[in-house]
Write a structure and sequence with these properties.
Radius of gyration: 13 Å
Distance between the termini: 24 Å
Number of strands: 3
Structural class: alpha+beta
Order of helices and strands: HEHEE
Strand content: 25-35%
Length: 70
């Protein structure tokens, strides 16, 4: 998300819409990932649980994997 659009609730609205659509389609979980320099805290605040990390990216970053039961 663009820096000037952060904290306006757009990410939360989009995530809720994706969760609702997943439920509508019969899904019982969502899996997402975020690099450590992006938005892992965002997903945690929305009830996603970290399930693992893949390290070794430039700058010491990791790809953080999350799961949420719907």
């Amino acid at each position: 998300m663009r820096e000037d659009a952060r904290m306006e609730g757009w990410g939360s609205k989009l995530l809720r819409a994706a969760e609702e659509e997943a439920r509508r389609r019969g899904c019982d979980r969502l899996i997402v990932s975020s690099f450590t320099f992006q938005a892992p805290g965002f997903y945690e605040r929305h009830g996603y649980q970290e399930t693992g990390r893949t390290g070794g990216f430039p700058g010491g970053a990791s790809d953080v994997h999350f799961l949420k039961q719907l």
